[in-house]
Amino acid sequence: MTTNRTFTMIKPDAVENGHIGGILEKITSAGFKIVAMKYTQLSTRDAQEFYAVHNERPFYGELVEFMSRGPIVAAILEKDNAVDDFRALIGATNPAEAAEGTIRKLFASNIAENAVHGSDSDENAAIEGAFHFSGREIY
Ligand code: ATP
Ligand code: MG
């Protein structure tokens, strides 16, 4: 079953570089409705758990350190075909390979510090949304 929701984070690099407003503008202009949002910071343990799927990868330690080093914006977004359309809007993991006009092309620094997260499946969108938000925080 496909759903119309995805989950995103504006990562610590983009927050540090003053890009919250610019990224939210791209998201809402592309037709995504924000149904939940918070400014928060991941603990080391939160980041380990959130990215547990990558715990065998060589960059896991670096990723956990990066994702927990400063505040993020977490949000649940709603739109038809949300997961795939949002992955298209953010662009490739490596901003050097991201298409023109994508959020990572515009705002990301490099493959590690790449400005935004986007869920890669409906199942993960639901898991990741529930990691950050309770039912009464979703509108
Ligand atoms: P995300 O899950 O954050 O939306 P993604 O799905 O495009 O990104 P993944 O393969 O899931 O990419 O990797 C998760 C994150 O790990 C990347 O967004 C990036 O921050 C980091 N990462 C991925 N590959 C590398 C790498 N080769 N070196 C350093 N960090 C990396
Ligand atoms: Mg991913």
TrEMBL record:
Per UniProt, ATP binds at 11, 59, 87, 93, 104, 114
Could you tell me the EC number(s) of this protein?
2.7.4.6
Q: Which SUPFAM superfamilies does the record associate with it?
A: Nucleoside diphosphate kinase, NDK
Tell me which SMART domains the record gives. NDK (SM00562)
Q: Which UniProt keywords apply?
A: ATP-binding, Cytoplasm, Kinase, Magnesium, Metal-binding, Nucleotide metabolism, Nucleotide-binding, Phosphoprotein, Transferase
The catalytic site is made up of 117 (pros-phosphohistidine intermediate)
What region holds the Nucleoside diphosphate kinase-like domain? 3-138
Cofactor names from the entry are: Mg(2+)
Kindly give the InterPro entries that the UniProt entry links to this protein: NDK-like_dom (IPR034907), NDK-like_dom_sf (IPR036850), Nucleoside_diP_kinase (IPR001564)
Reaction(s) the record says it catalyses: a ribonucleoside 5'-diphosphate + ATP = a ribonucleoside 5'-triphosphate + ADP; a 2'-deoxyribonucleoside 5'-diphosphate + ATP = a 2'-deoxyribonucleoside 5'-triphosphate + ADP
Q: Does the keyword field hold Iron-sulfur?
A: no
Pfam families noted in UniProt: NDK
Report the enzyme's class at the first EC level.
transferase
> Which residues does UniProt assign to the signal peptide?
none
Q: How does it assemble?
A: Homotetramer.
Its biological purpose: Major role in the synthesis of nucleoside triphosphates other than ATP. The ATP gamma phosphate is transferred to the NDP beta phosphate via a ping-pong mechanism, using a phosphorylated active-site intermediate.
Name listed for the protein in its UniProt record: Nucleoside diphosphate kinase
**What organism is this sequence from?**
Zobellia barbeyronii
Upper taxonomic lineage: Bacteria, Pseudomonadati, Bacteroidota, Flavobacteriia, Flavobacteriales
